[in-house]
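Input.
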Amino acid sequence: MGPDSGPTPDTPRTDYTGAIYGSLLAASVVAGAGALGPHPRGELVALLLCTGVVFWGAHAYVRFIGNRLRHQSVTWREIRQVCAREWPIVQAAFLPAVAVAISPLLGLGVEGAGWLALGVAVTQQVGWATAMVIRAGASRGAVASVAAVNLVLGLIIVAAKVALH
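Output.
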């Protein structure tokens, strides 16, 4: 590909979209989680992980449909590749879930656990987005812009949590 042939395709080295999306999803789950039942930490951990798995499955399924429409059959190899490519959506739920699970060790109540998980989700979202553009060879200005945009997106979710609760 020459320098004027358009954008370079994402590679596993530069495609962190699933991790970024999954982090936004995890932050949204934490922000939207209202009154939970008798085991709020366990329920929030389960909600984070289950939501990640459901959205992972939905993304993989949509890609399968796109592949089927393009060439009528989907191979097992394609299924494995698509599932692996979308797996970061689930992985992004892991650290916020761990934050909730260890929150009692940090002396945090249920509300503090939610804020910790939200902070972890927003931090990893900004981190993944920043890492993606750095690995893609972006300029410092582009790196700063991407980090700022992702921070703003995260802060919008934080504001939503404040408004909802």
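The first helix runs from residue 17 to 32.
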